[in-house]
Each structure stands twice: as C-alpha cells, then as structure tokens.
Write a structure and sequence with these properties.
- Helix content is about 70%, strand content about 0%.
- By secondary structure, the protein is mostly helical.
- The protein has one domain.
- Helix 2 packs antiparallel against helix 8 and helix 4 crosses helix 7.
- The longest helix has 25 residues.
Length: about 290
C-alpha cells in the first residue's frame, strides 16, 4: 500500500489518496451491509469515535509524509505506534507497563533520531508529521483493543465491521477539507493513477479488516511483532523499486528502532492482564435469579 501511494505521490496529494481510501471503505461497508448481510450494531460510541477520528487523522498524516519523505522512512516512523499504544493503554485502559518497556521506549526514540538525523534533515517537519501519525495510530489501536473486548458493564465487543465502519466514515470526513477545500483541491487522476489508487485502496481495506479482526483474538506480542515486517518491506521496496536511498546512519537507526519497538511489544505483554479468549466456546448459560 505504501509503495503504491509513493508511485503516484508526485502529482496526487496525500490527502486526496487518503480520501479515496476512506470513501472506498465507506462504499465497501455499505455493500457488505446491504448485500452481504453484515450486521452493524454499534454500542460503544465513545471508543468508536476515538478510533475513527484518531485513525483517520493518522492515515492523513501518513499519506502526506509518504509523499514528502518516501515510503520507507514514513512507514518506519509510522510503525513506532506500538510504543505509543503502550503509553495510551496505560493512560486510557489502566494497563501499567513494565519498567523494561520504558527503557525500550528510550531505545526506540534513539533509533528514530538516527533515522531522521543529519543525513535526513531534508525531511524537516514532515518527519514529525510521520511521527504524529504514529502517535495517533497508538490512540486508534488502543481504541480498537477497547472496543473489541467485552465491556465490564456487559456490553458485547464491537464487530470488526463496526469498527472498520467508524474508521472509514470519520476518516472520510476528516480528509474532506484538505481534499476539496479550504485547504486543498481535487487533482484529476490519470488512468494509470486510478489503477494504482485502486491497488492502494484494495490492499488497505483488506489489511484493515484483517488487522481489526485479529486484534480481537491475538496477543499484543503476536500482532506487534508481525507488524514490524511492514517497515522492513517498505524500506526494501523503496530501495529496490522506487530508487530511494538509505544512509548507513539511517540503516543503523532502522535496526535500533525496530529492536526498540519489538522489545516494547514483548515487555508490554507481561504487564497486561490476560484478556478473555474470544475464540473459546462460550460457557453454558446459567439460571438467572
């Protein structure tokens, strides 16, 4: 998805790519609801609003930074989000991190500083935009985890489709001002650009649905470690197919950043209370008094 966005970023603004992605997601939800029998029964409105708003702004920042600093670096900075998920899970969900996680946070920040160091000063403020996308992603992922678990007051977990619907709908509204005005204008894509945008949309929708579904079942360790394959793929793809370059300092910073994020994920799992297994068979109903 990131490589596809980079291919058309020379002419198509990042905000417009984000809008096309979200609008296509809204259409997908409507088709699934009206034609495929997908049930949308939102009940945890607060978490859905946080997930949609923060996730939408995160994607907007991510696409804009891809166009400015390249798919590899933008993806790497965006995928430091597990570190921020750890922080926001502590603040919003009461999941206190282990001390080792704080050390891992420091290591990650050192790695990020090397990636956007002297050799990448041209990135300027756009590197901070990519980091902002990671912070907002941390908020969004925390909201997904909260919405995808049963609440203490007995309300059921939100379905993956409901969470995805909140993400695409609120994200679409968040990108309208920078796509149509007052902060931007629509650029008519060529046939080739529409083809690439279609690939970007399809890959992102599939990835979002799979990720949202998985976060209701897998551990923080599993999802966090698997996610770290994404910046590696984006960095390698940017070098091999898009002519992007990686300096020695930035390459070392990439390794340190990924190590710090991986450590964060591993140590955070030890400090989180075990969540109920949503795949296990339900208990037999008990008589109600």
């Amino acid at each position: 998805m990131a490589l596809g966005a980079r291919l058309v970023s020379a002419r198509i603004p990042g905000s417009q790519m984000a809008f096309v992605r979200f609008a296509s997601g809204v259409v997908t939800v409507l088709v699934a609801w009206s034609r495929l029998g997908v049930v949308l029964r939102p009940s945890r409105w607060g978490w859905l609003f946080v997930r949609g708003t923060a996730g939408g702004l995160a994607v907007l920042c991510y696409y804009v930074s891809i166009a400015r600093i390249g798919a590899g670096f933008a993806t790497l900075l965006n995928y430091t989000s597990p570190v921020f998920s750890l922080i926001f899970a502590w603040l919003l969900l009461g999941e206190r991190p282990a001390r080792a996680s704080i050390v891992a946070l420091g290591i990650t920040l050192v790695g990020v500083s090397m990636v956007v160091g002297i050799d990448n000063l041209h990135a300027g403020a756009w590197a901070f935009v990519a980091m902002l996308s990671a912070v907002l992603s941390g908020v969004a992922v925390t909201a997904i985890r909260a919405a995808r678990q049963p609440s203490p007051d007995g309300r059921p977990a939100e379905s993956a489709w409901t969470v995805f619907a909140s993400f695409t709908t609120l994200g679409m509204f968040a990108t309208i001002p920078s796509t149509f005005g007052p902060f931007g204008s629509w650029v008519v894509p060529t046939a080739y650009e529409w083809l690439v945008l279609s690939f970007v949309v399809a890959s992102s929708i599939i990835a979002q649905l799979v990720m949202t579904s998985a976060l209701g079942h897998v551990t923080v360790v599993g999802s966090g470690i698997i996610h770290q394959l994404t910046p590696l793929i984006a960095l390698c793809g940017g070098v091999l197919f898009l002519g992007e370059t990686v300096s020695l300092l930035a390459a070392i910073g990439c390794v340190i950043t990924l190590a710090g994020v991986g450590w964060t994920v591993l140590t955070s799992d030890r400090s989180h209370p075990k969540k109920p297994d949503l795949d296990s068979p339900p208990e037999s109903p008990r008589p109600q008094s």
